[in-house]
Amino acid sequence: MTGDVILVVEDEAPMRRFLCSALTSHGFRVAEAGTLASAERLATESQLAAVLLDLGLPDGDGLTLLRQLREWSHAPVIVLSARDREDDKVLALDAGADDYLTKPFGTAELLARIRVALRHARGQAVPDDPVIAIGPMRIDQARHEVAVDGEPVHLTPIEFRLLALLAQHAGKVLTHRQLLHDVWGPRNTHQTHYLRVHMAALRRKIEADPARPRWLITEAGVGYRLLDE
Amino acid sequence: MTRTSRLARTYGIAIVGVALATATGLVVHDHVTIADQAMLFLPAILVAALGGRGPSLAAAALSVGAFDYFFVPPRFTFAVSDMRSLITFVVMFVVGTAIGTLVARLRAAEEASREREHRTAALLAFTRDAAAATDVEGVEAAIVDHVRDVVGAAARVEVPDIALHGPVAIRLEGEPALSPEQHAFLEAVAHQGGVAIGRLQLASAARDAALRAKAEELRSALLSSVSHDLRTPLAAITGMATALRERTAGENEELDTIIAEAQRLSRLLTNLLSITKVESGAEPRREWVPLEEIVGSVLTRLEAELAHHPVAVDLPPGALARVDPILVEQMLLNILDNAAKHTPEGTAISIAVTREPDAAVIEIADRGPGLPPGPRGQVFDKFFRGKTSAAGAGLGLAVVRGIAAAHGGTIEGLPRDGGGARFVARFPDGAPLPDVEDVEDVEDDGLANAS
Questions:
Q1: Does any CB of chain B come closer than 8 Å to the CB of residue A140?
Q2: Contact across the interface for A15 and B439, Cβ inside 8 Å
Q3: Residue B216 has pLDDT above 90, yes or no
Q4: Chain B residues whose beta carbon lies within 8 Å of the beta carbon of residue A183
Q5: pLDDT, tens digit (0-9, with 9 covering 90-100), for A4-40
Q6: Chain A residues within 8 A of B231 when measuring between CB atoms
């Protein structure tokens, strides 16, 4: 994978420079695009490892590129967005983006997101092993058992399903819609308060201090993320 | 005066007419029949009848007398020898009365129509003035002017609070006696005036609303473009500074400051946008949220700022609030950030959530210097800054109040027993609590892909 490039799609030159220099200094190869048109061209020319995508581009919507990309590529796409653009983020995530970064962000966040995205893309998170270990948690998917710090924790079937889903995508954000769809089925994707109530209950069982969650993080207006480091 | 002289003239005409008829009759007496002589009196009665019923009857009576005396044999006596003359008398009376009545009726109709015309003209003049008025005061002045012209009394206009095309009240000074016509006029003016005022009020309300909307639109457009233009370089600065920080070994206060200040600026921008959003009247997206989720999210985001303050959280598990989670997170973030900035290191901050039957209450209390002296609630004013040295544009707490208000809720800043400040936010549910049992039910059979 070292030969693959990360495509940086960002119209603001200083921001693009920062992204490119941060990535190259950590050993990634990058291709950069400032417009939708050049991004489309670069995407077909290169073997993509991942895409960093700013949604507001001068010649069109980043979502357009995302949808096109998803027709033929599984390369992880990380959307770059502002804090008050939660709807855009959800739209992008539900359209196939893998994660997002809220501007402003630092190199540490950027690299952490890229690492998670690349790991998932390489298939390391696909649970060949039925047991997933994250921090103090051990999630045995075959036996439906969860232990925190070696102590077994009783979860309801829904709590277990939520935790397993998040653990399979550890480090990545999952939208309310994705979680509701996978746990309750396609007809229940609007009952967000079910999800919130069960998440709160789950957090009380796995977090040492549920008011200061260390692992099960709320992404306000977007969804949830289970940290893995 | 004019009335009596007019009366005298009409009766005078009757007398002169009858006298002329008599004189003519006497002159032509030898050449005509008695019937012709009777005819001579008809013009006199007709002419007199134009003066009304009284003169017409008087002329008829005089004619009968003169005819009898001068022409009916035996002449120069009032005696009557021939029954035929009696018929002539009766005809003369009937003709006189009929014509007089007709003329009187005509005259009354004419009088009424003139009166109507007068009233219509007055009303028309008023309507024109009221329509030309550009404000409520102008309409009131028109009412006062025209009422004075028609009724002759000074008037005071009372506009009901919600006029909306209802009549206004017209109070007359000295309560003069009014003719039915004047009364009708006043009623019409009250209604027309009400309509005019209602129209002006509507127009001015519409104009105000349009202006407000336009201003709001401008402000939003300006702020979001400003915020975009500020955010973009800020993101680059933060990125570059963290990249530099990564490459620099050991302590580097300068770089840390750049990063921290850029983050502060970013938070300030978020507040600026929030207050615009909240003040533009955008409806918060309310849903049932467990408050521990919001509190947890805020404490995670403020980990660095609250590093030197022990935070105690008292939160009943599963306590729900019907709020916009993003906005309330912003609100709590501002209060806590404010507390962290304005209280000495090491002092405790507490967060307590309580459920009331139809509301959720969040209280954040600190052990700092307390609220600055001054009117209650001023800390929530835009650009209000306490006397502390801590920096801040004074937007944070204004956003807090804006968000509480957008939810139909309240926020209070209160002194705390034993020193410190207490912020109490109350969010009314506005809807019955969701059935959480319902949620539990789903567990048994609602799993889509139970593994």
A1: no
A2: no
A3: no
A4: 447-449
A5: 889 999 988 999 999 999 999 999 999 999 988 888 8
A6: 82, 103-104
CATH fold for the domain made of B216-278: Helix Hairpins (1.10.287)
The beta-carbon neighbor of B273 closest among A84, A181, A182 is A84
Residue carrying structure tokens 């001054």 = B374
Please tell me whether residues A45 and A90 are part of one structural domain.
Answer: yes
Q: Which fold has domain B284-436?
A: Heat Shock Protein 90 (3.30.565)
Question: What pLDDT score was predicted for residue A157?
Answer: 92
Q: B115-133: string of b/e by CB count within 10 Å (b at 16+)?
A: eeeebeebbeebbebbeeb
**In chain B, where the domains are located:** 2-115, 216-278, 284-436
Shortest alpha-carbon distance between residue B162 and chain A (Å): 41
Domain boundary among A100, A122, A144: A122
Q: Which helix (H) or strand (E) holds B368?
A: none
- Region A48-74 average pLDDT: 88
Per the CB < 8 Å rule, is B290 touching A197?
yes
Segments forming the whole domain that contains residue A175: 131-226
Q: Smallest Cβ distance to B442: which of A15, A194, A211?
A: A194
Instruction: Mean pLDDT check: name the lowest of A10-14, A185-189, B64-68, B360-364.
Output: A185-189
Q: Which of A72, A95, A122 is the last residue of a domain?
A: A122
Residue in A107, A164, A186 nearest the CB of B242: A107
Of A144, A185, A204, the CB nearest to B448: A185
- Same domain for A73 and A141, yes or no, is no
| Residue among B263, B233, B261 at smallest CA distance from B333 | B263
Element (H, E) at B61: helix B53-70
Q: pLDDT for B154-181, tens place per residue?
A: 888 887 766 566 788 888 887 778 888 8
Rounded CA-CA distance B357/B342 in Å is 34
Please, what sign has the CA dihedral across residues B352, B353, B356, B359?
Answer: positive
Residues A226 and A224: their CA atoms lie apart, in Å, by 7
Residue type, B305: E
- The CB density around residue A126, as the number of other CB atoms within 10 Å, is 9
**Rounded Cα gap, residues B329 and B293, in angstroms:** 9
Neighboring chain B residues of A218 at a CB cutoff of 8 Å: 293-294, 296-297
Q: Tell me if the bond preceding B233 is cis, omega within 30° of 0.
A: no
Confidence (pLDDT) at B45: 84
Q: Which residues pair with B288 in a beta bridge?
A: B322
Domain B216-278 and domain B284-436, same fold? Reply is no
DSSP secondary structure string, B182-215?
HHHHHHHHHHHHHHHHHHHHHHHHHHHHHHHHHH
Residue A32 backbone dihedrals phi, psi, to 5 degrees: -120, 140
ipTM over 0.95: no
* Banded model confidence at residue A154, pLDDT cuts 50, 70, 90: very high
Beta strand B410-415 pairing with B349-356: unpaired
Strand duo A173-175 + A223-226: pairing = antiparallel
Length of chain B in terms of residues written: 451
Q: Are residues A206 and A159 in the same domain?
A: yes
DSSP state of B381: S
Cβ contacts (< 8 Å) between B315 and chain A: which residues? 211
Indicate if A97 and A144 belong to the same structural domain. no
Q: How many domains does chain A have?
A: 2
Query: Is A52 in the same domain as A71?
Result: yes
Residue B30, CB-side half-sphere exposure with 13 Å CA sphere: 1
The answer to whether residues A102 and A69 belong to one domain is yes
Contact A84 B239 (CB under 8 A): no
Phi and psi at residue B261, to the nearest 5° = -70, -40
Encode pLDDT of B347-376 as tens digits. Answer: 999 999 999 999 999 999 999 888 887 777
